[in-house]
Amino acid sequence: MSEYPAQFNSEILFYQTEDGQTRVEVRLSNESVWLSLKQMAELFQRDKSVISRHIRNVFEEGELEPGAVVAKYATTAADRKTYQVDYYNLDVIISVGYRVRSHRGTQFRMWATNLLREYIIKGFTMDDQRLKQAGGGNYFDELLSRIRDIRSSEKVFWRKVLDIYATSIDYDPNTDLSREFFAVVQNKMHWAAHGHTAAEIVASRADATKPNMGLTTWTGSKPSAADIEFAKNYLNHDEIDALNRIVTIYLDFAEFQALNRKPMHMRDWIAKLDDFLRISERDILTHAGQISHKAAVAKARAEYENYRALQANKPSPVESHFKKAIEEMKKLESGKRKPGKE
Questions:
Q1: Angle, alpha carbons 21-23-27 (nearest 5°)
Q2: Domain extents in the chain
Q3: Which of 137, 150, 171 is nearest to 255 (CA)?
Q4: Inter-CA distances, 187 with 39, 46, 284, 289, 294, Å
Q5: 225: CB partners within 8 A, 6+ apart
Q6: pTM higher than the cut 0.70
Q7: Where does the pLDDT of residue 121 fall: very low under 50, low under 70, confident under 90, or very high at 90 and above?
Q8: Strands, sheet with 35-36, edge to edge from the N-terminal-most edge strand
Q9: 234 alpha-carbon distance from chain centroid
């Protein structure tokens, strides 16, 4: 059951599509959109006091008349007391969207400006996607489809986590928040599985004297320079299994939220990663690690050169094939030679 009254059970979502475009999806109630202060604060990802100040300025400056755009409804709160809650229609939401300083506000203004530009140039504007869908919203349907595609993909564990992060309703790869997440997500996952960062794993397990240089997986028939710098290639079965289990929890939660029409923001997914690691009774990475990526790569490359030198005197697979083929040819030639008569 919705926590909001039926006559105000509307919804407005704006989100980034996979091609980087901002789209807005609206669920109408009585041919309009009505949001409470709490809902607007969630929509624009700002504190309620900030949204309230913008609304007050909209009215004080005469941009809108409160009597035409505000409706009150008596609702019972968690303390069982009844309060009069203000709901604001679409006009107020748009006005606040043009005033609020936040990443979400910027997304909203970019979307609105594009529509306004189209209207000024063409004299009309059309939502092609909505026409294709006969007016029905499909954000959460598309989200479920994306999550299930991620689940079935063959991508390595931390790349699936990145893909889930990219489904955030406010996703933007160019924010400081995203850059920080991109910098730590791989190491957080590695640390949870074996207590080391990716660089530490490469530096400690790359060993020219070990079979296959310490690698547990590689491309092609033998380890190559392209394989040695990736930490996942040194992990054992149990470590890979632990990482995949964490990702499964992440995916299950993402699907649950989409089924319940609950949008997730970038901050939500960053917090949830640590939450799931704690639930799994895994350690949380709180530092940058003891080995830098540059040092780990240098160590791996040095070990690889030593590994190649050790392997140089061993026949390669193709050399073994060549030797075998020559021996078989000699046998055939020998069999064909019979004593001739003069």
A1: 170
A2: 6-132, 139-317
A3: 150
A4: 35, 30, 10, 9, 15
A5: 301, 304
A6: no
A7: low
A8: 35-36, 82-88, 70-76
A9: 24
Look at residue 292 and give its three-state secondary structure: coil
Q: What is the pLDDT of residues 2-36, one digit of tens each?
A: 444 445 555 555 545 454 554 555 545 555 677 78
User: CB under 8 Å to 67, separation ≥6 — which residues?
Assistant: none
Tell me the CA distances in angstroms from 51 to 33, 119, 179, 197, 264, one per residue in order. Answer: 17, 28, 27, 41, 20
Residue 80 to residues 2, 3, 76, 181: CA-CA distances in angstroms? 17, 14, 6, 40
> Mind listing the pLDDT tens digit for each residue in 278-319?
877 778 887 778 899 999 999 999 999 999 988 877 767 777
Provide the token pair at 295.
Answer: 């040092």
End-to-end Cα separation, the chain, in angstroms: 106
CB contact at 8 A, 39 and 48: no
- Residue 14 pairs in a beta bridge with 24
DSSP track, 223-288: --TTTTT-GGGG--HHHHHHHHHHHHHHHHHHHHHHHTT----HHHHHHHHHHHHHHTT-PPP-S-
Beta-carbon count within 10 A of 206 CB: 27
User: Which residues does 46 contact at the CB level (< 8 Å), separation at least 6?
Assistant: 100, 102, 104, 105
Cα 325 off chain centre by: 52
Residue 170, classed as helix, strand or coil, is coil
Residue 224 has pLDDT above 70, yes or no: yes
What confidence category does residue 116 fall into, taking pLDDT thresholds of 50, 70 and 90?
A: low
* Nearest-angstrom CA–CA distance, 177 and 339: 85
Give, for 11, the enclosing helix (H) or strand (E): strand 11-16
Contact 246, 277 (CB under 8 A): yes
The residue to which tokens 């607007």 are assigned: 40
Q: Report d(CA 228, CA 209) in Å as an integer.
A: 14
CA-wise closest residue to 85 among 10, 8, 2, 1: 8
Which DSSP string corresponds to 206-226?
--TTSGGGG-S--SSSS--TT
Produce one character per residue of 298-337: b if its CB has 16 or more CB atoms within 10 Å, e if not: ebbeebbeebeeeeeeeeeeeeeeeeeeeeeeeeeeeeee
